[in-house]
Amino acid sequence: SCFPESKSLSSGPPLPPWLEDMRKTRIHPTSSSPAAKKARIEAAEGKVEISNDRWTRSLKWFLGPETTPLDFFQNIFEQKPLHIRAQGDDKKKAAEFFSYQVLLNILTNNQIYYNESMTICVYKDGKRQVAELDGRATKEQVDELYSKQNHTIQFYRPQVFSDPIWRLNHEFENDFGDLVGASVYLTPPNSQGLAPHHDDVEVFIIQTQGRKRWRIFEPLEGDELPRDHSNDMDLAVVENNHKLLLDITLQPGDRLYLPRGFIHYATTATSTSTSTEGATSSCHVTVSTFQKHSFTDFLLNLAPVALRRAFEEDPAFRIGLPIDYATLGGSSAKVMYRTGVQVNRYLEDVKEEEEIEERSEKSAKFISTIREMFLKLARYVDQDSIGTCCDEMAIDFVSHRLPPIGREEPQGKPHNPLDPNDNKIEFRICNPKTIHIVTKESGTHIFHCNQNDRSAHMGPQDAFNDEEEDDEKEDLQEEEKKGQPDPNKHPQEEDEEEEEDEIGLQGEGVVVIHSKCSVVVAILVHCYPNYLTISELTAKVTAIDAAEGGPLTAMSMLGLRSSGLLEERTRQPKIAD
């Protein structure tokens, strides 16, 4: 089962309610039974809202008119592929994302390097063969390989160059709450670039030019929703041993969703079960998300927090390991046991047999102890530690995601003081999905992506140079110095000064305002996407805090405006009926 029985955890404090509820459910995430679907819907309440209004235009367009976002997340997401046929102006919209000519223009106007931004390959003789190229990619060389040698081009991070893909990725990041990457695949006629494989991400494909045939097979048994992508698979083995689910040809404007784990390959060869048209070149955009974004990954972040608490509160976690622990588990224990049994049978040594049995019992006890401690660890997971983990992951996401369209440069600028009686200007906070709010005693921290670097999105992990690392070390040392008490000051004075130092802080990607201002931020988020005048906002804040409604509103708006986290406009007069 997915969760342990309560009787195995009978001693000590009770399990946290959230774990007890999940333990009772025991529904496999990919089960298709009615009970499983109901459980998925109930379990998804935290990330899937009932209203379809909360989803972006990009996701609604991708899914088409026949599938609502709610239907998608409840019945399709992580469960089965979905083919959406082009309707209306879908073909025109898809063509705006990318094309072969767009790639040639990018190569002409930018320094694009092989391996870092582009891979060129061909599927030949049953294997994917990658062209051995290095240095800057030129338009002439790429065109030679593509047009005359039938190689497929895989272009990474097109969102850096294509505004339509930038918008799509940014809005998908709003929808999924996780980083969304993209690649473009350009394949000449009668060609195949990649071997059959499965991905470790949720894949959303948009056919922008030409046609491409896709063959999609069931996942490997026991490897549904994998955490890692597969190696290249043998085409004959896949065709002969895995159930074919879809054999389709994507036309311009068509879309295709593939959950992670489903085996697939694509080719520009002729005729399929759904198309008898001749072969053409193909260009499609692949958008992907949910890479290492599972409960496993959350628990990997949460486990160190629980272990620290267990070590502090339970002496059992501090006891040293047995001196001979290395021989009690793993390969060494198995080899020693088997060898001992064989030798004993040959020598008929009774004493040796007793030692073997004793070691076997000791090994079983060691394994049992580790299992019991692992189950016991769940007791040290509470709402605060889960909340801390949520905050850390959300802040990391916000700091690395794409900035909103048109918000690459800092938007903060000086403003004239606000007139509390001015009803001509109205405000709203920037999209709440692009920020994460953490309230502390020292202030309300608002993490945002407005100043994130579009060109660095989903870039190489080694982009941080030594100078930046040195700066981080200096900042850390400075923070450590600040944390040491000043013998000439009363502790209360130090606390007050520390709070004053943080208020008004506008670092890269974070704004800190007074902790009391959290109520103002909460009201702005709650009212989004509606605009409010200063007087309307003050009235709402005063209803919660009559004494400080006005000052809190003024203080909050000053910090939010200067940081560029507010959108403002002139209120339009209402037209009489």
UniProtKB/TrEMBL annotation:
Region named Disordered: 403-424, 450-504
Enzyme Commission number(s) of this protein: 1.14.11.-
GO-annotated molecular function: histone H3K36 demethylase activity; histone H3K4 demethylase activity; iron ion binding
Question: Where in the numbering of this chain does the JmjC domain appear?
Answer: 146-306
Cofactor(s) the protein requires to work: Fe(2+)
* Gene3D superfamilies reported in the protein's UniProt record: 3.90.930.40, Cupin, JmjC domain-containing ribosomal oxygenase (ROX), dimer domain
Q: Tell me the superkingdom of the source.
A: Eukaryota
Q: What class of enzyme is it?
A: oxidoreductase
Q: How is the cofactor bound?
A: Binds 1 Fe(2+) ion per subunit.
Do you know which PROSITE patterns this protein is assigned to? JMJC
Composition bias type Acidic residues, residue spans: 464-478, 493-503
Localization per record: Nucleus
Function comment:
Oxygenase that can act as both a histone lysine demethylase and a ribosomal histidine hydroxylase.
Membership in a protein family? Belongs to the ROX family.
Report what the protein is called: Bifunctional lysine-specific demethylase and histidyl-hydroxylase
